[in-house]
Write a structure and sequence with these properties.
binds coenzyme A, Aminopeptidase, single chain, 5-stranded mixed β-sheet, globular, alpha+beta
C-alpha cells in the first residue's frame, strides 16, 4: 500500500495528540498537549503525518536544535517523536517519515540529524540503526526533590 507524507496543520491536533499518547501513554494529558500550539507556530519545528488510504498512520516530530549529543555541527535536525500505529509497523512507514524529517532539516541548512530513545525500546533502536543512525552516547537522567 502506498505511503504519502504531509505536514500537519492545526486541524490535525486531535489525531496528533492520539499519536503522542501512543508514544508516552503514561504522560498526563496536560503535559502531552502544552507545547502543541507553539510547535505548530514555530519555524524550527515540523510535524509530518504518514498517510495510507487517506488516513494518518504515523507521525514524526522534528525540530532544529542548537546541540545534538554526538554531533559535530550546529544547528542539527532532531527527531523528537516517532510513532506508527501498531498494526502498520514493519512496513516502512517510519522510514518514509524519517526521510521527510531529514529532507526538512537539510532544507534548513543542517548536515546532521540526531535522535534518542529509551534503552529498553528495542524496536526503536533497531529502526534507528537500520535507517542509518549510529549510537553516539548513553545518558542517565536524575531527579532530586527540592
Ligand atoms: C519505532 C517505530 C516508529 C518504527 O516504525 P515502523 O514503521 O515499524 O518502522 P519501519 O517499518 O519503517 O522500519 C524501519 C527499519 O527498522 C526495522 N525495524 C522496525 N521495527 C523493528 C523491530 N521491531 N525489530 C527489528 N527491526 C525493526 C525495519 O526492518 C526497517 O529496516 P529495513 O528498512 O532494513 O527493513 C514503531 O515501532 C513505533 O511507533 N513504536 C512505538 C513508539 C516509539 O517507540 N517511538 C520511538 C521513540 S520516540
Amino acid at each position: 500500500m502506498e505511503i504519502s507524507i504531509r505536514r500537519i496543520t492545526s486541524d490535525d491536533q486531535d489525531e496528533w495528540f492520539k499519536m503522542r499518547k501512543g508514544i508516552w501513554p503514561d504522560a498526563p494529558d496536560e503535559y502531552l498537549g502544552f507545547d502543541m500550539d507553539d510547535i505548530l507556530a514555530s519555524d524550527e519545528d515540523a510535524v509530518f503525518f504518514a498517510m495510507m488510504d487517506g488516513r494518518p498512520v504515523g507521525m514524526v516530530e522534528a525540530r532544529i536544535r542548537e546541540y545534538g549529543e554526538g554531533c559535530e555541527t550546529s544547528p542539527v535536525g532532531y527527531i523528537e517523536g516517532w510513532f506508527v500505529y501498531p498494526e502498520l509497523r514493519g512496513k516502512g512507514v517510519a522510514g518514509v517519515l524519517t526521510q521527510a524529517a531529514e529532507d526538512w532539516a537539510r532544507g534548513k541548512g543542517c548536515t546532521e540529524m540526531a535522535s534518542d530513545t529509551w534503552l529498553d525500546n528495542a524496536a526503536s533502536i533497531r529502526a534507528h540503526v537500520k535507517l542509518g543512525y549510529f549510537e553516539a552516547e548513553r545518558l542517565v537522567h536524575f531527579v532530586k526533590q527540592l
